[in-house]
């Protein structure tokens, strides 16, 4: 529809309809329409007034749709001239929405609670790490562990021989030297 020929003044008798006039469109329940009889509480005059009012309201609705469409086109053109793309608007909306969320009381309370929980968890892990470290130290100094350590050391000496950690171990049957790969 060409918006240049439309009169968008809502007080105008044309109401932006241009050449599309709805007066020749039949309305349900009109005099010539015998499909639906009038309700018993309405007279023929009241029904005709209601039909006329309905036609006017439908014309106003159509006019408002046309005005809204023209305004939307105008807004789109202004945004294009300003360099605002739909993606830019979306980013701005997301940023504003995130700022609104961050300033909300629920977000602040949740953030505070999670921060406290994180601090308590960190403290618990630190305490647990210290306790484990202390227990391992106590266990290493215990007589049972020392006895086990001595036995492992004796076993290593028997298997590898009396060599120090940096020396290579050689089997009497092998002519190629083999390096000690034992984790002890």
Please give the structural blueprint:
Elements: H1 44-82, H2 86-103, H3 105-140, H4 143-160
Can you give keywords for this protein?
single chain, 184 residues, mainly alpha, disordered N terminus
Unreliable runs = 1-5, 15-19
Roughly what is the average pLDDT, rounded to an integer?
78
What percentage of residues falls in helices of 4 or more residues?
55-70%
The major pleated sheet works out as:
none
Radius of gyration equals 45 Å
Portion in strands = under 5%
How many helices? The count is 4
| Beta strand count | 0
Q: Please give the oligomerization state of what you see.
A: single chain
- Helix/strand class: mainly alpha
Fold and architecture overview:
This protein is 60% helix and 0% strand. By secondary structure, the chain is mainly α. It has helices at 44-82, 86-103, 105-140, 143-160. The protein is built from 4 helices and no strands.
How would you summarize this macromolecular structure in one to three sentences?
The chain is mostly helical and 184 residues long.
